[in-house]
Amino acid sequence: MITTHTLMADFGCFGWRHRGPENEVNPPLGGGTWDGYCWSDEDAVIDEQLRLELRAWHARFEIGNSGCEENSYKFDWESFHSEGLALCRKLKTAFGSTVRIRYKKPVEDPTCRGRNPVQIEADGRVVDVPWDHNLERQRLAGFVEDVRRRLENG
């Protein structure tokens, strides 16, 4: 089993944790774990300076994207993502090789539709995460079928 931390800004949260097998295909994002104020014992490797940087990065997202969809078109996504990747490199250094660190663009970014997450390697390189879109469609179809059956059976 390996822990994967994904940095992805969302309203109220920016860090996600999932534990699963190392060869897992299309791992789920996991549960929201970092909101900038509550940290688990597992996160003790994240020093106070990096926590402040993560909170500031997340606040920039929330302030810049609140109110209306128009704000997301005005937001400086390029510098936001560059900063997010730099934070991921710092997280990778803090956690080391026993944890995967990934970055995912939030859906509020008008250019991110359908983009897969990227992973930060130990040497700082950013690599695409292989994604099986057929498996994703199969899982979605299975979920829809489960919901349909539950609705039929009350």
Features:
6-stranded mixed sheet; 154 residues; 42% helix; alpha+beta
* Main beta-sheet annotation: 6 strands, mixed
Q: Helicity range of the residues? A: 40-55%
Please mark out the parts with pLDDT under 50 across 5 or more consecutive residues, or reply none.
none
* Strand percentage: 15-25%
Q: Mean pLDDT, nearest integer?
A: 87
Radius of gyration computed on alpha carbons: 17 Å
Please give a structural write-up:
There is one protein chain. The chain is α+β, with helices and mostly antiparallel strands and 154 residues long. The protein has one domain (2-153). Helix content is 42%, strand content 21%. The chain is built from four helices and six strands; from the N terminus they run βββαααβββα. It has helices at 48-65, 69-74, 77-95, 133-153; strands spanning 2-10, 13-20, 31-34, 99-103, 118-120, 126-128. Strands 3-2-1-4-5-6 form a six-stranded mixed β-sheet, with helices on one face. A hairpin with a 5-residue loop joins strand 5 (118-120) and strand 6 (126-128). Helix 1 (48-65) runs antiparallel to helix 3. The chain is globular, with a radius of gyration of 17 Å. The model has no long low-confidence stretch (mean pLDDT 87).
Question: Short description, anyone?
Answer:
With 154 residues, the chain is an alpha+beta fold. The protein is 42% helix and 21% strand.
